[in-house]
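Researcher: Structure prediction, please.
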Amino acid sequence: MGSAADLKETGAKPRLTLLLAAPRGFCAGVDRAIRIVELALQKFGAPVYVRHEIVHNRFVVERLERMGAVFIDELDQAPAGARVIFSAHGVPKSVPEEAQRRELYYLDATCPLVSKVHVEAGRHFKAGRQIVLIGHNGHPEVEGTIGQLPRGAISLIETAKDAEAFLPHDEAKLAYITQTTLSVDDTAEIVSILRRRFPTIAGPHKEDVCYATTNRQEAVKAIAPKADVVFVIGAPNSSNSMRLVEVAKRAGARDARLIQRATDIDWSIFHAGETIGLTAGASAPEVLMEEVINAFRDRYAVELDEIVVTQENVEFNVPRALM
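Model: Predicted structure follows.
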C-alpha cells in the first residue's frame, strides 16, 4: 500500500479501518433521564429546571436547553413553585427535602441502578454496619450516595492503596457498596483486598457496577488489541467515559483518547492502513458517533467493522406523573 501522501497525489483516499465497539453510547438510565426532561417540557411547558447536568454530555444538555430546560447548580436558583428535575446521578436526601420545603414540584430522574445502591446503603445502615463506598471523590453519584445517610456513616475508598490502609470501627460489622460507573477490574481488585482483610464484610446481592458500564468495558477490551488508536466519545466529567479510555490502554491499544466531538480529533496522528477503534460513553448519543464516522469518511476510504460482545434490551419506566 502506498503512503498517504502518494494516495493523495493520485486523488485516491488512503484506506483506514474503523472498529466500532458494541454496546456503546446511551444506557437505559441515561435514556430514561433524557426522556423525563423531554416529557416534562411537553406536559408542563418551558421552563423546566434541572439540578445539575441531567447526564454528563454537553451536546445533550445544550439540546435540552434549546427545548426550554434550564440547568441550575442548586435549588435556590429555581423560583418558588417551579418544576424541577434531579439528574440521573442521584441526589442527597437533603435535596428533595429542600424541594418540599420550598414547594417545588420535582421529578427524580435518578437511574434505578443508582437508587439500588441507595437502598443497599440504607439496608446496611439499619443492620448497624459501617459502610465503605468504593468510588471517586466529588462525583455527583458519590455525593448523592453519601448523602443518603447521616454524616460519617459512609467511608469513601478510591484506590487499592486506600483499601489496604482502611481501618474499620468493627470488622464484624462492615459492608461495601460501589459507584455504578467504575472500572470493573479496578473495583474487583479493591473488593478482593477488602475481602482478604475483612472476610466477613457484607456486599451487594448483585454487583453495583452497572450492566452498561460492564458491557461497554468488555466491548472496548474486544477492540483495543486490534486498534492503533481508540477514541472514546464522551465528556471529561463522565466517569464511565474516562474509565473506557483507561480500559482501552490496559487492553492493548497503542493509544486511547477522549473526544467530545469530531472537531476534537487530531488528524495528524493517523497513517494509511491503520485500525482505529471507536466507542462512546453511556451518556453520549449515537449521533456523535455518526458525526465522527462521517469525519473519517471525508478523509479516508473507510472500512467499518462492528464488534458486538452482547445485546442490551434493558428499559426503565419514567415516573407515573409523565406517563
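Model: The longest strand covers residues 15-22.
Researcher: Thanks, that helps.
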